[in-house]
Amino acid sequence: MNLKYKIIGFNIKEFGINIHEMKKELPFDKLSWDDNDIKIAQLELLISQNPNDNDLILQEAQHYLDQDITPEKIKNLISMLPAHAKHTFHAFKPFRKRSVSQFIAENINNQWVIRNIEIPRSIGFTQQADHPLDLRQLARRFPSMDRAISDSPILKNLIRHFVEILCECEPQRNLTKIGVTCHQMSLLIDNTSHSVSNSPEGLHQDGSDYIVSALVVDKHNIEGGTSQLYCTEKEDFIKSHTLEPGEGLFHVDRNSTIWHKVTPIKLKDPLIGTGYRNILGFDFNYIS
């Protein structure tokens, strides 16, 4: 464990968890498409094409993300796009499927107890904006994780181990309660795309105290997907690793010098036609 940078590479075998059992207990095949990706890509295109209207676009961006009916001001900007840009605008398609669940980890009698929290449909998830035009500051709404998965003993065992690692990294805090968000994500690619990325925003921080930026559960017919950690103190990538199933990265995030990204994935064998990378991501935030 590198205590200076608080970065831990792990394999779930270290926790006594079998990857094949994990795949059975945490299936990815019923996840819903994340349509937020389409609208955010469209908004970014509008921003690039209309630099003088950025304030207007930002004012309407949340409405565009939330509503089925396009706000009039956004509709007008779309109508004024040049033909090639308009074609690109309407050609965006989803590339991720996902669900989300929240938990509270509480230390009771020197043992960490993990319990589920119901997420109201109205709750939106935001991330820390790295610059004024960073659309991750918008509230995105994701489908709730299937209850059978959020109740999974394997998932709660994972969370317990991560919380214990966090406490080893922060012994001076004497933490007793930690909020946990789990994202279940499937990144998919086919012959219609050259590449797709799970961090289209590039190098970033998520805005939580600690994160598991990725725990790979399964992948098929892809190359790429290399996790990269950058330290602003050293002005260099300090870790680069292509995670295999069962492997993950746990590290400090908010108010730290550590930033992260993952390289895009491409099809390994185009003749097969499809590929995927299934991961779990976790956010950990101090409560008390």
Automatic annotation (TrEMBL):
Pfam families the record matches: 2OG-Fe_Oxy_2
Protein name: 2OG-Fe dioxygenase family protein
Superkingdom of the source species: Bacteria
